[in-house]
Amino acid sequence: MELLLILSREHDTLPKAEVIAVLESERVHFEIKCEYNGILVLNIADRDDWIINILAKRLGFLHEISELIIKTDINKLNTDVLEYSWKGVIDYDYAVRVKKTYTKIDLDSQVMESEIGGVIKRKLKNGAVVNLDNPKTFIRVLLFNRKVFVGKRLVKVNKKHFFNLKPHKRPFFYPGSMSPKLARCMVNLSKIKKGEILLDPFCGTGGILIEAGIIGAKLIGMDIDWKMVEGTRENLDFCGISDYKVYMGDARNIELPNKVDAIVTDPPYGISASTVGEKVEKLYQESLSSMQRIIKEKGYLCLATPHYLDLPRLINHTKFKIIEQHEIRMHKSLTRVISVLKKVY
Fold first, then answer.
1. Mutual orientation of helices 49-58 and 14-25 as an angle, nearest 10°?
2. pTM listed for this prediction
């Protein structure tokens, strides 16, 4: 089965990296057939609904998933639509919707939708009707330059969660908190699975823990500021998450009875952040030493850092190896780097 994924274009590399991380964490065999800005076509060995559900539930930078049925050129579109056997694709009613991205071709989307819908109706001959309001089957037509992808939409991701749980909408708020969408992506990059233990040793207001809890991880959070500990607990309770332990502690000296499967964290930096009176580099270095002791072998750490920190040098004394990095420009003087590290032997 080939899947057509429409991804967010909020970042150049994170959406694709997030997809790959989730598929690998779930041990799904896949092949990337083609990719463009915001478009990813995957070949999945088996057609299993659980794969679709996992991607839809977990991915932060995903908009839609469709089963790809036609890949063609704009000049051959109507011919290929007419020649395609639509039996089993549309049973009752349907709608066709065209989405254009990075195309300079002067085409009227509504005219295209009407033409393609008409061709499908003539080919079906089973009484299927067009329903623009609430169709049982949604046919997505995606144009990228002159390339055209036609798919049967399987999932449209509801983004209300990321809007409703913005940091300022939670019971406990503190300036500088990470957005839910980026927090979800970082959790996914750690390759954590449902039922595994995730630690955030700089939990702040609990944004990362909330996203990890929603996908079913067991949570451990800690912060050196008691106010943050209480605030994180309040926010987790507000989100209906119960499988957590959050306590006051120092990330430079993490003490837990058992090792954790993954660590995802956004350590403090800058003037407004609490760095316990330490220089930022020293805080990071000592915390990384503590984290590598408490994470399992081959476990992943996903870490947000300011661009001016030399992370390769800071991990020299640890068993961590940098697997991938993604830059996010925040403003003129600051770029944040999302790094994925793996603990190696």
1. 130
2. 0.93
